[in-house]
């Protein structure tokens, strides 16, 4: 049994791979001063980078958990999400309202994916 950890620090690894399954730590936006659409897009851009680094892709996502500060942002967040997820490759997903680590953060996502063959 091999567990590969990437971008590891004291508190967490950004990527953990086990049995060709990729686990990403929670991703947030690049600029928390922006609105929900911009925060969602830059958060998903980070997911793309980590999936590529781990040998996976959007088409190989298995599940995603989206944490949103307030459900008032749900529709706008989903507009960005729906444009980002490849047609026919939507992961199992949960979306929950949650308190964020910093008050200016509006959205965070945690993704599990399979590595490409």
What does this entry look like structurally?
This is RidA family protein. It holds the Pfam family Ribonuc_L-PSP. InterPro entries: RutC-like_sf, YjgF/YER057c/UK114, YoaB-like. There is one protein chain. The chain is an alpha+beta fold. It is 25% helix and 32% strand. It has a six-stranded mixed β-sheet, with helices on one face. Strand 2 and strand 3 form a beta hairpin. The mean pLDDT is 97.
Strand residues, percent? 25-35%
Q: What's the gyration radius in Å? A: 14 Å
Q: Percent range for helical residues?
A: 10-25%
Report on the biggest sheet: 6 strands, mixed
Give the SSE order as H and E letters: EEEHEHEE
InterPro entries: RutC-like_sf (IPR035959), YjgF/YER057c/UK114 (IPR006175), YoaB-like (IPR035709)
Pfam family, one: Ribonuc_L-PSP
Organism: Pseudoalteromonas spongiae
Protein name: RidA family protein
Salient structural properties:
single chain; 117 residues; alpha+beta; 6-stranded mixed sheet; 2 helices; 25% helix
Describe the protein's topology.
Elements: E1 3-8, E2 13-18, E3 21-24, H1 36-53, E4 61-68, H2 74-84, E5 92-97, E6 107-114
Parallel strand pairs: 4-5
Antiparallel strand pairs: 1-2, 2-3, 3-6, 4-6
Helix pairs in contact: 1-2
